[in-house]
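Lab notebook, bench 4. Continuing the backlog of folding jobs that were queued last week. Each job is logged with the same field layout so the records can be merged later without manual cleanup. Today's entry covers Aspartyl/glutamyl-tRNA(Asn/Gln) amidotransferase subunit C, a 95-residue chain. Filled in by technician R.K.

JOB TYPE: sequence-to-structure
TARGET: Aspartyl/glutamyl-tRNA(Asn/Gln) amidotransferase subunit C
LENGTH: 95
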Amino acid sequence: MSIDVETAARVAKLARIQVADDALPGLAEEFNTILGFIEQLGEVDVEGVEPMVSVEPMRLPRRRDGVTDGGMQDKILSNAPDAREGFFAVPKVVE
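JOB STATUS: finished
OUTPUT FIELD FOLLOWS
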């Protein structure tokens, strides 16, 4: 696949990047170089290679997944302009 000047201008417009007309040929060449690198990656044999999260074989730290109420209801409600019965009180907006 090859990127021409018109396609480079369209990509720049879609990306909301202002590119001068005289810089479009250089931008198209850069796009073509990037596409060449991507084509090279497609040629690499990755059969049998496990996907990795990191270059270090390590497990991600995990915390216990437990439901809590945070234990700070009074502290949180102290910031509210109006709180009643343990909840935020708001004005009625629907009749």
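OBSERVATION: The chain has three helices and two strands.
SIGNED: R.K.
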